[in-house]
Automatic annotation (TrEMBL):
Organism in which the protein naturally occurs: Daldinia eschscholtzii
Primary subcellular site in the record, as a coarse category: nucleus
SUPFAM superfamilies per UniProt: HMG-box
Disordered: annotated span: 48-130, 315-337
Descriptive protein name: HMG box domain-containing protein
Length: 337
C-alpha cells in the first residue's frame, strides 16, 4: 500500500501537460514498503490527446534513419569483406607454409633414407620374372601381327566356301571333312577351274597385303623382328606349332654376299657334269676340286667374293644406317682324305 505522499506525487506527475510528459514514467522509492533493498517501477501512459510530430520532423528522422542504416550496412559489408580477405590470406599462407615444410622435409631427408626408399620400391626381380619380362619384350619386337591370308589353293578355297558361316560341332568335324573331300573329288572341270582362278586371285591379293604390311615398318624393325623370332624359338620354344622359324620377308633388306666357295659350287653345278648324281656325292666331289684348285683360278673367285662383300656393306649402310656384322665362317669345304 502506498502512503499519502506517494499518491500525491503520482497525481502531480499524471496531471502534467501531455506535451512534456514521456510515454513511460518510472518512479522509484525506497523499498521499505515492498521488498527490502529493491526498486519498484510504476509505469504510466500519456493521455489520449498527445499531439503528433510534424511531417518535416518525420521526414528528417526517416532520412536520418535510412542514411544511418545504409552507413551501418556499408560498414558491415566492409568489415565482412575485410574479414573474408583476411581469412583467405590466412588460408593461403597456411597452405604455402605446409607446402614449404613438406618440401623442406623432402630435401632435408638424408641420402641413406632416400636409398632405403629406393630399395623398398625397386626390389630385385627373380630369374623367372626376368625371363617373363624378356619374353614379353621379344614378343612386342617380333611383330606377330601379320595380315590374315586368304586361301590360295583350290582345296582350301573349296573348304572355306563349304564351312563359311556354318557351325560344326567338334565331334562332327571329322565326318564333315570326309563329306567335303568326297564332294571335292566329284567336282566338274568347270568348277575346279573356277576354284583355281579364285586361288590365283587370292595369291595376288595376299602378296599385295603382305608387301603393304612389311613396308609399313622400317627395315630396321623387320631385322629386329627376325632376330627376336630366332631368340624366342631358341630360348622359349615360341611359337610351339611351327618347327621352323617363320621369318619376315622384306625385299628392302640387302641379301648376304656370296662366298668364293659358293660361287665355285654354282659354276660346277651349272656345267652339267654332276647331272644325275646324288647330291651328297656331288657335293663331296666339288669340295675336293676346290681344294685342288690352282691359286690363279681361286684368286678370281676371291676377287668376285670381295666385290660382292663391298657391295653388300654399302647397301647395309644405305638401308639399315649401320655397318654390317663381321663375317663368320660357319662351315669349311670338306678336306681331302
Amino acid at each position: 500500500m502506498l502512503s499519502s505522499v506517494g499518491r500525491a506525487a503520482i497525481r502531480r506527475l499524471v496531471s502534467t501537460s501531455s506535451i512534456t510528459a514521456p510515454r513511460r514514467i518510472a518512479v522509484s522509492w525506497p523499498a521499505a514498503y515492498t521488498v527490502r533493498y529493491g526498486r519498484v517501477f510504476v509505469q504510466g501512459f500519456a493521455s489520449a490527446g498527445r499531439p503528433k510530430a510534424s511531417s518535416t520532423t518525420t521526414k528528417a528522422t526517416t532520412k536520418t534513419s535510412k542514411t544511418g542504416k545504409s552507413t551501418k550496412s556499408t560498414k558491415a559489408t566492409k568489415g565482412t569483406t575485410k574479414a573474408s580477405a583476411g581469412k583467405g590470406r590466412k588460408k593461403s599462407t597456411t597452405a604455402t607454409a605446409k607446402k614449404t615444410t613438406k618440401a623442406k622435409s623432402r630435401t632435408s631427408a638424408s641420402p641413406k633414407a632416400k636409398g632405403r626408399r629406393i630399395q623398398r620400391k625397386r626390389q630385385p626381380l627373380t630369374p623367372e620374372k626376368k625371363l617373363a619380362v624378356q619374353k614379353r619384350e621379344l614378343k612386342k619386337t617380333a611383330m606377330f601381327e601379320e595380315p590374315k591370308m586368304l586361301p590360295d589353293t583350290p582345296w582350301t578355297v573349296y573348304i572355306f566356301e563349304q564351312t563359311k558361316d556354318k557351325k560344326v560341332l567338334p565331334e562332327n568335324l571329322r565326318n564333315r571333312m570326309k563329306e567335303i573331300s568326297e564332294m571335292f573329288k566329284n567336282l566338274s572341270s568347270s568348277e575346279r577351274q573356277r576354284l583355281a582362278n579364285t586361288a590365283e586371285q587370292n595369291k595376288l591379293s595376299n602378296a599385295a597385303a603382305y608387301t603393304a604390311w612389311v613396308e609399313s615398318h622400317t627395315p630396321e624393325q623387320t631385322v629386329a623382328a627376325n632376330k627376336a623370332r630366332h631368340l624366342l624359338k631358341r630360348k622359349f620354344q615360341y611359337p610351339a606349332s611351327p618347327h621352323v622359324v617363320k621369318l619376315i620377308r622384306d625385299h628392302r633388306i640387302p641379301k648376304r654376299p656370296v662366298t668364293p666357295f659358293s660361287l665355285f659350287t654354282r659354276a660346277r653345278w651349272a656345267s652339267g657334269e654332276f647331272a644325275g648324281r646324288p647330291f651328297g656325292e656331288a657335293a663331296k666331289a666339288i669340295g675336293k676340286e676346290w681344294l685342288k684348285l690352282p691359286d690363279v683360278e681361286r684368286h678370281a673367285y676371291d676377287d668376285l667374293g670381295k666385290a660382292a662383300r663391298t657391295e653388300y656393306e654399302k647397301e647395309v649402310e644405305a638401308v639399315l644406317h649401320r655397318k654390317p656384322t663381321p663375317r663368320r665362317i660357319t662351315s669349311k669345304p670338306p678336306s681331302e682324305e
